[in-house]
Automatic annotation (TrEMBL):
Gene3D superfamilies: 3.40.50.2300
GO terms for MF: carbohydrate binding
Organism of derivation: Marinomonas rhizomae
Protein name as catalogued: Monosaccharide ABC transporter substrate-binding protein (CUT2 family)
Record family assignment: Belongs to the bacterial solute-binding protein 2 family.
């Protein structure tokens, strides 16, 4: 009987050791994405999953669907489950502060991807150089318009990456005679088309539209066609559908191309390095490039 008890105790110890070894080898990481209805975020999600496989990470992905309340619930659920790390593309850079503060108190490291989080403790931020990409778009606008004309822009209030793109564009045209005459929100392709129609009707002399994403660029392009406007469109993201839109539409003259796949894989590499005690940088900017057609 004593030998049986001793054998049972040894078996339990071995089983526990095996479980702990698995947990160490396969850290559990939660990823909360802004949406999966946008081609960029589909590519980002795929990059995260591929990166997780490469780094031997057990990745749990949730999609906020642009709903801050849902994202908060998802993150708080991850904290309750005491995951090893959280990767997030915030729905609202300021509004996500509460749950990220809870993660900090729980000693769960947070990495932001594409969109930053304001007033929160973040281990690292992986994103396109959004300001630089906006400046690239602005320089194309200056070249296209010869330094003079009227521009309208589509925005997504509360999203830091979008605000950086718009600011980069503004600064690139600041010393020219290009005037930004209107800015309206466009979170979806449909809303972007409606907002662009409204801006074109209010500003019929508009020469160019800057759209912060592929869907917004395509929505703006549809608005230009409907209004029979002379305006041309510059976009941002450069996923396959966005590249195709540049190739097939004369009024869409260029798109600043992001590398969402590299962004996702980089995020997983940063998580793995941090959890393994390696030094990581506070920012990993992914440099975008300009695409103007075949």
């Amino acid at each position: 009987m004593k030998n049986l008890k001793r054998f049972t105790a040894i078996a339990v110890t071995i089983a526990s050791a095996s479980f702990n070894l698995y947990a160490k080898d396969e850290p559990v990481v939660c990823a909360s994405l802004l949406t999966q209805s946008h081609p960029f975020y589909i590519a980002l999600g795929n990059g995260l999953k591929e990166g997780a496989k490469l780094q031997h990470i057990n990745l749990k992905v949730s999609v906020a669907n642009q709903d801050l309340a849902k994202q908060i619930n998802d993150i708080e659920d991850c904290i309750t489950k005491n995951v090893d790390a959280i990767v997030i593309s915030p729905v609202d850079s300021k509004g996500i502060r509460g749950p990220l503060k809870k993660a900090e108190r729980a000693n769960i490291p947070v990495i932001t991807v594409d969109i930053g989080a304001e007033n929160s403790k973040i281990v690292s931020h992986i994103a396109t150089d959004n300001y630089g990409g906006g400046a690239v778009a602005g320089k194309l606008a200056v070249k296209q318009l010869g330094g003079k004309g009227q521009v309208v822009m589509l925005s997504y209030p509360g999203i830091s990456s979008v605000e950086a793109r718009l600011q980069g564009f503004r600064d690139a045209v600041a010393d020219t005679d290009i005037k930004i005459v209107a800015v309206q929100p466009g979170k979806t392709r449909e809303e972007s088309m409606t907002s662009t129609i409204n801006m074109l009707q209010a500003n019929p002399e508009t020469d160019l539209i800057f759209a912060f994403g592929d869907d917004m660029m395509i929505g703006a392009g549809l608005a230009v066609t409907k209004q029979k406007s002379k305006a041309v469109v510059i976009g941002f993201d450069g996923m396959p559908e966005g590249i195709k839109a540049v190739d097939e539409n004369d009024h869409i003259i260029g798109v600043v191309k992001q590398d969402a796949d590299a962004m996702g894989k980089t995020a997983m590499k940063v998580v793995a390095d941090y959890l393994n005690g390696k030094e990581v940088k506070s920012e990993y900017p992914i440099v975008p490039v300009l695409y103007t057609g075949k």
